[in-house]
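--- STAGE predict ---
source: upstream dedup step, 1 unique chain passed
mode: sequence only
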Amino acid sequence: MASKVTFNSAKIEGLLKNAAAKSLDLVAIAFQKRIRQMLSKAGSGTKYSGSDYKSSDDGEPPTVQTGNLRNSWVASSRKKVFGRRKVKVLINQGVSFGEAAKYAYWLEYGTRNMLPRPFVLPTVHRMRRVAPRVFMKRYKNLVLKIDAGGPYG
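--- STAGE serialize ---
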C-alpha cells in the first residue's frame, strides 16, 4: 500500500523564517531586560558624602546614578540576516540618548584608574544559554502544528 505526502515547501520555509524572526525579537527583548536588570542593582562599594547611593565594587555591574546608561539599551535596533546556517541579531544602544552612554565601554572594560564593571559580557554569556531554548520552543511548536495537519502543508 503506497502513501502520498504533499506539502508546500516554500510556505514551510517562510514559516520557519518567520519563527526565526520572532525568536530573534524575543531574544533581543530578553537581552534588553537582562541588561537593565544588571544596571539596576544596588552597589556594595563606597558611599560618598553628599550622595544617596553606594558605588559599585570592582567586578560588579555599575550602580545607577542618572539612569542614562540603563535606559540607553533598546531592543528595537536590530538587523536580521538570513543565509546558509547564519542568523544574526545586532542589539545596539539607543540613539535617543546619544552622548549619555558613551562611557559604557569604559565601565565594561575598565580604565587604568578603574577596574571593569562588567554588565554586557555576563549578559551575553547568559543569553547564549537562553537563546537556543527560545528558538527550540518556537520551532517545536511550529513542527507540532505542521504535524497535526494544519494549514501549513
